[in-house]
């Protein structure tokens, strides 16, 4: 699966469970860890966990083998390492505190378009 296809799949999976403020950051050339970071917010620990689990389920169904995941038990911040795409799902307060968007502000960012899902 191409990186851009994986990004679209992750965004669609997050939107399906009503993630808020989905941001994609292109970090190619900024780090060797990954190519894209996707950051999304959930309103509660239960929703953060549901969002992360939905992404894992959808990518595995498409043959993507996640390298790892962290934080699924706590629900404050879940991290999914899909190799070329790293997904951060956080409660709003946690996201505001760590402000990953500002940390990577030199990288190209884009907000997910909710009508992209309907275009497929």
TrEMBL record:
GO MF annotation: an example: ribosomal large subunit binding
Swiss-Prot/TrEMBL keywords: Cytoplasm, Repressor, Translation regulation
Domain of life assignment: Bacteria
GO cellular component labels: cytoplasm
Pfam families named among the record's database cross-references: RsfS (PF02410)
Subcellular location: Cytoplasm
Broad class of the protein's primary localization: cytoplasm
GO BP field: cytosolic ribosome assembly; negative regulation of ribosome biogenesis; negative regulation of translation
NCBIfam families the record matches: rsfS_iojap_ybeB
Quaternary context: Interacts with ribosomal protein uL14 (rplN).
Protein family membership: Belongs to the Iojap/RsfS family.
Biological function: Functions as a ribosomal silencing factor. Interacts with ribosomal protein uL14 (rplN), blocking formation of intersubunit bridge B8. Prevents association of the 30S and 50S ribosomal subunits and the formation of functional ribosomes, thus repressing translation.
Record protein name field: Ribosomal silencing factor RsfS
Organism the protein comes from: Denitrificimonas caeni
């Amino acid at each position: 699966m191409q990186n851009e296809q994986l990004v679209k799949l992750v965004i669609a999976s997050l939107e399906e469970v009503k993630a808020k403020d989905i941001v994609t950051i292109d970090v190619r050339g900024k780090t060797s860890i990954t190519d894209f970071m996707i950051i999304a917010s959930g309103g509660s620990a239960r929703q953060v966990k549901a969002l992360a689990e939905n992404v894992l389920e959808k990518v595995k169904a498409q043959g993507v083998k996640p390298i790892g995941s962290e934080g699924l038990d706590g629900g404050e911040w879940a991290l999914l390492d899909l190799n070329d795409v790293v997904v951060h799902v956080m409660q709003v307060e946690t996201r505001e505190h760590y402000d990953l968007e500002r940390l990577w502000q030199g990288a190209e960012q884009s907000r997910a378009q909710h009508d992209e899902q309907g275009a497929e």
